Description:
CATH topology: Rossmann fold
Strand content: 15-25%
Number of helices: 8
CATH superfamily: GTP cyclohydrolase II
Largest sheet: 7 strands, mixed
Distance between the termini: 32 Å
Number of strands: 7
Structural class: alpha/beta
Bound molecules: zinc ion
CATH class: Alpha Beta
Radius of gyration: 17 Å
Strand order of the largest sheet: 1-2-3-5-4-6-7
Amino acid sequence: MAGNGDRQRVKGSDAPPRMEKVAEARLPTEVGEFRVIGFQDVTTGREYIVLAKGELSPNRPCLVRIHSQCLTGDVFHSIKCDCGRQLRRAMELIEQEGAGVLIYQQQEGRGIGLLNKIRAYELQDQGFDTVEANLRLGFAPDERSYEDCVAILRALGIHRVRLLSNNPHKIAALRKAGLCIVERVPLEVEPTEETVTYLRTKKEKLGHLLSFV
Ligand SMILES: [Zn+2]
């Protein structure tokens, strides 16, 4: 989970990533049974975890979620953001569909890294919103890149995607990286009192397509 930052691919400056499948195993979860697949970028050594379910046919558009790691939300069930609940909801939707893929992308804090995210939280405690906090730390509001995810989908034989996302910038970035997205499937979870301001910032400043806030 840690230690990837120093070898992080610089946006748009490298050759296309080469993904190697390292291992695959059965993973029963509270939500249902998945296959867990480990990939590694041959060049950078970065590690990726993919959950897959059902038959992944190149002829049928595949339900896909690209989830960006959020340690506080995913592991500690923080309600400061909606990440943990989005992760579970995505797994539930793939389980219901009987087929699909979830890529767990280790770009914590929209790509700024875990400790910088905690620094951003500190600023948020002082009254800055999530975008202002990133800017004050010298980062763009969103530092993520998606070339690695497109390479993983290719390695899985997936060419056409129904993408679970509320983020039009992610859709544009994935299309730019060569992915064919045939449909956007909304992934909304009900806001709580704690998340409503965060989600409103995402909607107003990052253009997220959210109907609840
Ligand atoms: Zn989060």
